[in-house]
Amino acid sequence: MTTETSAEQRLFRETNAEFIEESASVPQTRALWKEGKSFERDWWQQATELGWTSLLVPEELGGGSASGEGVLDLVSVAQLIGRHVSPGPLNVVSTAIAGLVHPAASGEHEELLEGLMTGETIASWAVHGTGAAWNPLAPTVTAAKSGSGWKLDGTATSVEFGAESDVILVVASTGDGVVELVVPTDAAGLTVTPTGSVDFVRKFAELSFAGVEVGPEAVVAEGAAAAEVVTAQARLMNVLQVNESVGALDRVFEFTLQWGFDRYSFGRPLVDYQALKHRYADDFVHLQQSQAIAAAAARALQQGSSSAAELISSAKSYVGDEGVQIVQSSAQLHGGLSQTLDHDVNVYLRRVMLGRNLYGTPREHRVLVADLINDEEKKGAAA
Questions:
Q1: How far apart are CA 154 and CA 178, in angstroms?
Q2: Owning domain of residue 362
Q3: Antiparallel, parallel or unpaired: β 204-214 and 149-160
Q4: Domain identity same for 202 and 308
Q5: Are 177 and 222 in contact, with CB atoms under 8 Å apart?
Q6: Which of 202, 223, 244 is the last residue before a domain boundary?
């Protein structure tokens, strides 16, 4: 990150970097892809032993962060995941945990939380509607009271690792707001259909609910509390996704610059050509700007800043657009070789392109920023 870090955070990052480089870098991702797998559960449980799933959990519930800045520590892991195009459900599991431990959440979910922290349980987050613009508070799945519990109907799309998960935190519309519920993937009436993805190992699913019934113990939050919890989850998810992309961009620029020094044309390295120097300079500037705005968004979320929503959507918009351009520029600088599946730039482009459109497109987040600015202007005028 482009912010100062403590000694604890540096040690945490160095330990995770060594683990990921040895067990979850591009070669392992390619191997999983050829086997048709998304990730190995044993590997994920090893990852949880490093504390990945405990960073957002209060100490009284068995979690904690050595640095005291759990969000920033988690972001550092997301950057490493992006840098190595690693597999694993870090983002969705973290988002599920964030919902369960949110101060506005209700219910008793300690057993589920413990399973998530140890890696024995995998959870995902169903919030996307069918054919609708990004709005986590306007899901197309509906929930109606059924006795003391709830009955779910409708379809959720783009559920990350939906087919690999044991439970799903489902955001559903009640007519008067939203409710978030824990639903087992083997629940009666729930159909989980795997769907395609441009990414080698990041898999998705469509979830169809046909009268799926859950008890009152499934409630994470409802009403105004649910809106608060879901909004917090959406912000965390986008911060993790943006920083994962930044980690990927950093690595892409690194090996592309090295290629410019190593590759000779007419007796000169590529970086000697003025036109290519301009390309490298432009890409470096966009990379630095992406790192800065992603770090600012993460810091704002960690501090609970009033500017967090605007910074997060700004980062999502900027990194979403410029990130794809940086990787495409890298592909052009590598020439025809980059168009093959054997070249690493292809793997990175897939991950960055996928991230660009997850949980709101750049355009949708620009609209959110405009709405936030408009709201502030109205408040100022009213005052």
A1: 14
A2: 226-382
A3: antiparallel
A4: no
A5: yes
A6: 223
Strands (E), the chain: 123-126, 142-146, 149-160, 167-173, 178-184, 190-195, 204-214, 219-222, 264-265, 268-269
Amino acid residing at 47: A
One-letter amino acid of 283: D
CA distances from 324 to 35, 53, 77, 85 (A): 27, 29, 21, 15
Tokens of 203: 């898999």
Long-range contacts of 144-150 (CB under 8 A, 24+ apart): 144/174, 146/213, 148/215, 148/216, 149/213, 149/214, 149/215, 149/216, 149/218, 150/179, 150/181, 150/213, 150/214, 150/218, 150/219
Could you tell me the two tokens for 65? 């962060």
Output the tens digit of pLDDT for each of the chain's 383 residues.
445 578 888 899 999 999 999 999 999 999 999 999 999 999 999 999 999 999 999 999 999 988 899 999 999 999 999 999 999 999 999 999 999 999 999 878 999 999 999 999 999 999 988 777 899 999 999 999 999 999 999 999 999 999 999 999 999 999 999 999 999 999 999 999 999 899 999 999 999 999 999 999 999 999 999 999 999 999 999 999 999 999 999 999 999 999 888 888 888 888 888 888 999 999 999 999 999 999 999 999 999 999 999 999 999 999 999 999 999 999 999 888 788 888 999 999 999 999 999 999 999 999 999 999 988 877 777 76
Burial 312-322 (b: 16+ CB within 10 A, else e): bbbbbbbbbbb
Hey, what are 259's tokens?
A: 């290629």
Give me the number of domains the chain comprises. 3
CB atoms within 10 A of CB 176: 8
